[in-house]
Give the backbone structure.
Amino acid sequence: MPIKPSAITERVKPFRLVKYFTFTSLVLVFLGTLMLSILNTHWARTLLRQKSEAYSRLLVENLNHQVFIQFILPVAVRYGQIELRREEQAERMDKVVRSTLHSFQVEMVNIYDRAGTIAYSFDESRVGVTDAGGRELAAALAGETTIRLVQRGNWLRIFLGIPEESRLVTFAPLRAERPLSTLSGPVLGAVEITQDISDDYRAIFDFQVSVIYTSTGVMGLLLVIMIFVVRRGEHIIEQRNQERLRLKEELSRAAHLASLGEMIAAVSHEIRNPLGIIRSSAELLKKKLAGTTQSTAIADIIVEEATRLNGIITDFLNYARPAEPHLIPCQVEKVLEKAITNLAPELEARNSVIENRLPPSLPTLQADADMLYQAFLNLLLNALQAMPTGGKIEVAARVENAAVEISIQDQGEGLPEEVLAKIWDPFFTTKERGTGLGLGIVRKVIEAHQGDIRLENRPEGGARAVIRLPAKAAEPPDTHVAS
Ligand SMILES: Nc1ncnc2c1ncn2[C@@H]1O[C@H](COP(=O)(O)OP(=O)(O)OP(=O)(O)O)[C@@H](O)[C@H]1O
Ligand SMILES: [Mg+2]
């Protein structure tokens, strides 16, 4: 029974499940990687902030120390009073601050006096400004250090972690130092330092982007590979199904033909006996009529048609129940010559000739001469029938690769594509009075001899039948027996 198309799609389905599963896992892995990269960068930013803050504290402590040692103490000793309005003092302070911070990325330094007025600044124009520090300044003057992250940019940039600018602003008390002690002296003022950490934030974001790019690339590649694998798998499954379908159909056709053959064989067998009686009766009738004045034309037709019908039935029987070949040493060229000779009257009637190009002797084959004769006759008749207005048939043979290769070629109309595709189908014929069994019988005969046959068009027009019969079973030359 042929398989319905729905059966194929059902078989492909489990594979589709694998496809969806793989695709979903890819998407999940991708989302997971994305989440991981977001968490990772968040953690990196937190770490960056903590490190920057710790670093800032150290910086401020160091600045406090240097300012106290290198500025406050010497100035107090020399001038008795700290007055940053005096140029020498301001210059000295500037030198101390800049030499302390010169290798650090500090954008702005403001030093406030105890009243909250800017006594020193990187930006000279700010000196003398009061109330610039706000609550953090007040806290610093009260002895407390505060560190604040100031970010600028629209909300999306801040949300994504790429603000236009990121600054760390530190307010710390400026203390007097007691000898050999940590900074625990009285508060003399306050220090404000501003560090630009935009580049660090940008580096983290760039890293995140490269992680996302890489994972997208890898996922994309995996997806492409997966699609390729899936396509290939589906193609293979599809091909297997087609093949199964073809084999099933072939099997059912073979079974069908086998039963048809059985039936034909049985019917043909039963027809043959009455047909024989009809023919011999008609021949008898002919003989009787021959002695009278009456015409024998009708009896002639009966004999002729009964003979033709007998031929058709013989073909059917040969096709349906091919005999086992009786293999004996055989000269294949002799068999061919016999067929050519027997066709002489037919050739003359059809205005055709056979050019015998057979070599004088070929290796002896183990073959059934009667069966081969039947096969060659069928091929020669086909060639003859392909040339309705007459022509030349060439018969040749040669030895090649331990086989005898025989070719029969004609100058007929050749085989159109659609005919060539069907010539081996039983009952396929393009002739009005053909059975379409001739080539089928030929093939069975050749295959029974472990040979093969092909039909092809000649480049110069006409058809060519090429038969190969293995020569390996040949007898030694001194035991040659002509058939
Ligand atoms: N030499 C050829 N040139 C052109 N067509 C050919 C040739 N040999 C065979 N064919 C084509 O193949 C068909 C099948 O050939 P096959 O011998 O099986 O049957 P048939 O000749 O039609 O009938 P039957 O042999 O029973 O008289 C032919 O009808 C013809 O169309
Ligand atoms: Mg034929």
